């Protein structure tokens, strides 16, 4: 798939699936390659600056479908706080009982400073962080611009 875009959007905590520095840099450079000069990248992720301090063991239970479906996560932090294992539970009413499904993933607890450095290293400019209160989105967002052609040749 070819083409260039005005905006590249990656939200709902997708970037922290990239566990290594080189994986993150490859993704950021790939985003840059898909942007027109002056294009915008928007990345949403959990507030890992706060989460790394608190190291919660679980998320709150979310209830859907009139109480017939429950969703929650259990987090197992590494000693360093750099990453954590996540078990995502889906509990659903099935007739007279309940069925539980558990999926597992590993996440990198990516801080604002590390993502900012990654964006700048990948060539982005004007990196700006927005809180949920500022943006209206449920997770913190970071925006950055791909420099325009005139800015890269100056």
Summarize the structure in words.
This protein folds into two domains: 5-45 and 110-153, Rossmann fold (3-Layer(aba) Sandwich); 56-107, Single Sheet (N-terminal domain of TfIIb), CATH 2.20.25. The mean pLDDT is 94. The protein is α+β, with helices and mostly antiparallel strands. 25% of the residues lie in helices and 41% in strands. The chain is elongated, with a radius of gyration of 18 Å. The chain has five helices and eight strands; from the N terminus they run βαβαββββαβαβα. The strands form two sheets. It has a four-stranded mixed β-sheet. The protein has a four-stranded antiparallel β-sheet with strand order 3-4-5-6, with no helix packed on it.
Task: Please tell me the CATH architecture of the largest domain by its name.
Answer: 3-Layer(aba) Sandwich
CATH superfamily of the largest domain: Vaccinia Virus protein VP39
Q: Can you summarize the main beta sheet?
A: 4 strands, mixed
Q: Write down the domain tally.
A: 2
User: Going across the major beta sheet, what is the strand order?
Assistant: 1-2-8-7
The global form is elongated
Radius of gyration, whole Å: 18 Å
Low-confidence stretches: none
Number of helices: 5
Number of separate strands: 8
In whole angstroms, how far apart are the ends?
A: 31 Å
Q: What's the order of the H and E elements?
A: EHEHEEEEHEHEH
CATH topology of the largest domain: Rossmann fold
Overall pLDDT level: 94
Percent range for β-strand residues = 35-45%
Relative helix content:
25-40%
Structural class: alpha+beta
CATH domain class name of the largest domain: Alpha Beta
